[in-house]
Amino acid sequence: MIYEIYPRSFQDSNGDGIGDLKGITQRLDYLQSLGIDAIWVTPFFPSPNADFGYDVADYTGVAPEYGTMADWDELTRQARKRGIRVLVDFVLNHSSDQHPWFKEARASRTNPKRDWYVWHDPAPNGGPPTNWESIFGGSTWEYDAATKQYYYHIFLKQQPDLNWANPGLQKAMHDVMRFWLAHGASGFRLDATPYLFEDPTWPNDPDVKGGPSVGLKPYNSGREESHAILREMRRIVDAAPGQAILLGESSTPTIDDLAKVYGSKADEINLPMNFLYGNLTHLDAKVFKRQLDDAHSRLRGQPPVFFFSSHDHSRQWTAFGDGVHDDAIARLTAAMTLTAGGTALMYYGEEIGMADLTAAELKDVPLGPKRVVADKRDPERSPMQWTGTAGGGFTTGSPWLPVAQAAATTNVAAQSADPHSILNWYRQLLTLRRDLPALREGSYVPLESGNADVVAFARLDRSGQGVLVLLNMSAAQQRLAISGWAGGHVPSDGRVLLTSQPDATVDLANPVLAPFATRLVAFRVR
Ligand code: NOJ
Ligand code: CA
């Protein structure tokens, strides 16, 4: 299980209202007690923060607001002691326009670093070379008046794309990877991997007809050339001690495209995140069953990576909650992700059922350098709720984003003391996942629940011990008629391992589930 930390909001150690590396170190005992394997720390490098750190101005530095390199080294040292690996967020598709490389590149057309970025002459009418749209809106092209060319950016104009076809750039970025590996990193979360190359014929997009047409396109993403680049990165992490890995932000249009991201010889990204699953925001049993089954049958046997919520996605509580059964729903989505096999990824605060900040909570926070201008993702980036006191145990100062009002009751301290809390639900799930071979490494058995509102699957270890997982994705009680077991025989002697419905029975063939109930049942196949 990999735990994502947005450092700005996790723990402030010096009262300036901004979370920092020392703060993460202070919370390692808590993270160890959760039973996680690794943390992914989102960018903490020097940055003008046009995109809160995803516009990197120095790939091998630590921004003063997050601490020092010594703090980083101490974090990795302390994490290792506790069996927790640390992944660095590697923003490889683009740098900041304030990075010295880009400043050099834009100095003149003949500058040696010119080709480290993607430049193009204007169209014959002087306008942008293509009609492509950037992910954050507007053209992908920004005109540089001094050198009379456009540079390409798939994200903000403050995030010029790096040119991965350039050997000098490649070498510089490989050196960045080696730097962090030498500083205790156990690998990288690779940002925006689909976008490393563009179609060199620069075709116009026929779909852009005045309205926005953004996202993954055959001309801006998923290009063949990126495989060689990712294979080289894989060689670099494989050569490092301690089984370093690549975790990929690798959205793809289809599951078959996702299969390719692992590499044809499983020699590219170890763990590409499954966005076909992670982007779902509506509980629909048919849709989820298909994503779970596909992830286990169409990735050529490679481990799926399931996640919900991140610094770019609404929190599960907000995305899936219906306002009535929020608690049961939070338990259900947690159980699904943590029992479905492969690798699970979770965003800080999900373990206590944190919600997005509301518009009312954000209304007094001025836009500007503190809060990124009109960043729609502020709601899911609020400070971690450790305690019910002012500052939520996150800071003794004034937090950079408000601590949610819900922190008064929804916090780690309160939930630790309550055996029925969501936090303890997560702890139980994580313990089962660690202790039961079926959940840890068992095969995935797709089942038919006989009910369009319920997802059913099983995990089975080599000795025939299994766990049946039942998830009712509706607000009504549901009766099931489970089928799909090998040989057609329904296993007997079940034992409830975990349930969000106190009166749960162990009937394995025709169980009844309360609204949004989750049930995990241990069984044995003869
Ligand atoms: C994906 C990151 O997760 C997101 O926060 C960022 O804005 C873009 N990549 C650009 O780096
Ligand atoms: Ca701080």
What does this protein structure show overall?
The structure is a single chain. Helix 5 packs parallel to helix 6 and helix 11 runs parallel beside helix 14 (422-435). The chain is built from 15 helices and 18 strands. 25% of the residues lie in helices and 15% in strands. The protein has helices at 21-26, 28-34, 69-81, 100-105, 167-182, 226-239, 255-261, 275-278, 285-297, 316-320, 326-339, 359-362, 412-416, 422-435, 437-441, and strands spanning 2-5, 38-41, 85-90, 119-120, 141-144, 149-152, 187-190, 245-248, 271-272, 305-307, 343-347, 443-446, 454-460, 465-472, 478-479, 492-499, 512-513, 518-524. Strands 9-8-7-3-2-1-11-10 form an eight-stranded parallel sheet. It has a five-stranded antiparallel sheet with strand order 12-13-14-18-16. By secondary structure, it is α/β, with parallel strands linked by helices. The mean pLDDT is 95. Bound molecules: 1-deoxynojirimycin (NOJ) and calcium ion. Residues 12-14, 16, 18, 20 line the site of calcium ion.
Main attributes of the structure:
binds calcium ion; 15% strand; binds 1-deoxynojirimycin; eight-stranded parallel beta sheet; five-stranded antiparallel beta sheet; 526 residues
Main beta-sheet annotation = 8 strands, parallel
Mean pLDDT: 95
Number of E strands: 18
Outline type: globular
Rg over alpha carbons: 24 Å
Largest sheet: spatial strand order: 9-8-7-3-2-1-11-10
| Beta strand % | 15-25%
Class from helix and strand fractions: alpha/beta
* Helical residues, percent: 25-40%
What hetero molecules are in the model?
1-deoxynojirimycin, calcium ion
Give the oligomer, counting copies of the same chain as homo and different chains as hetero. single chain
How far is the N terminus from the C terminus? 31 Å
What's the number of helices?
A: 15
Q: Uncertain segments of ≥5 residues (pLDDT<50)?
A: none
